[in-house]
Design goal:
The protein is mainly alpha-helical. 71% of the residues lie in helices and 0% in strands.
Amino acid sequence: MSIKNQKQPRIRRSIEESRSNILSAAESLLVERGPQSLRLADVAKAAGVANATVLHHFGSIDAVQKALMEQMIGDLVDNILALNVPVDDLSAARGAGLETLFDAFESRGTARLAAWLELTDESRRLTLVREAVQQVVQQKMANVGVPVDVAEDMILLSVTLALGVGFFGPSLADLLGKPPGRARELTLRMLRANLDRLA
């Protein structure tokens, strides 16, 4: 029997490892080819598993996309909560939070996936967003005296603009002959000034 005809040994993974493997493959496809490449067969192939394995763990490709977005949101929240900025320097704290937020939407295809989920009417299923906002408000903003409604408005404004910059910023700047980071620079400058006023 030739080596070509030998079956590859099956890799036994825990449920968590299998889900993580599938999401990692989906993220690689997202970054490399965009959200339209997150099709069941493509994700299964990239993960080195059968289509049925993806369906077993997630139920549908829509659920894979949703789980990937939720993972990205979770990573963003973890990064924001891990920021170690002195509470007596609110401007520095806001600046660090904004930089972390914009980094998240400008990398890993996060803005493209968020836009894709919105366009396919799947974003309404992202119930984790509310919990993520509440976690940031309670653990990072309330302890420095920012009222909850103001904190939520600040997050709404910041995320909306970070998503826009992540999705359109580089291509629009290029079309206008501006440097690649110009949209982010202008948006962050405007946001910092307005958030200081809001707070």
